[in-house]
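assembly run, all chains below
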Amino acid sequence: MELENIVSSEATKRFLEVADKVIQLGQPLRLSTSREHEIRTAVVEALSNAFRHGSDSPGAPLRLHASQPDDQLNVVVYNHDRRFDRVPEEPKNLNDSDKRIGGWGFHFMRTFASEIVISNGSRGHTFVSLKFERDTPSTLADVSIQDEKKPRNQGKYE
Amino acid sequence: MSKQKATLEQRGTFWVLKLPAILDINQEEPLNEFFAKVVAHDASKLILDFSGCEYSDTRGFGILFLLSQAAKEASVDFVLAGLTGQPLVILNQYHVMDQFRIIPSVDDAFDG
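ok done. output:
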């Protein structure tokens, strides 16, 4: 799926529409309603991150590829003009006196996905691949960063 | 009433802030304006009505946390009402539910 001409005021609504299509694709997994909310949230956060942090190229379309092999749901989000040199830090606990708000989007991607692979491409872009399983993972997903490689679901974006 | 915009209603010294269908960064400015109005009127209680809120992203929750801190500093009772669906599922994941006073519906705030 490709999203073009996104404006900030409508961004979340459009990301939700895409996330709902991903959920539809995952129907064979018989996801619980709660699990659907979790996956929807992770997908929207992945798109939102790509939208907000790819601002060096205004108007660049966002792309997402989703597939449903076996008992899992795979999602790849293309980040234009963004590279990851390290895994984003976990946010501070909101119970701490120093209450920073940032960083929770990636935290929820790690909470709800069972695996995250960040592939830094040769042209300064990044593919963020998320693997979801039927049930909520019991631990935060491991995150690996690969350079100059294509993502797990390489190929044409639809 | 638009589902896309937050609305504020005064009921005595209580104020009800009805959240829109989508809570994200675009709501930061209107919610802050509403909160300033509530504080200016010496409100005793601010009830955030989630009954029409279908989705909040992490930035929307961020606004919520900041408002709750500001309410505490202003001695305004900050109450969440009508939480269901995605906002409830995700708020549970923050492990901060005990920081908020949560009630089933706005009407319960007036009964209690």
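Chain B has four helices and seven strands.

The radius of gyration of chain B is 13 Å.

not gonna interpret more than that til we talk
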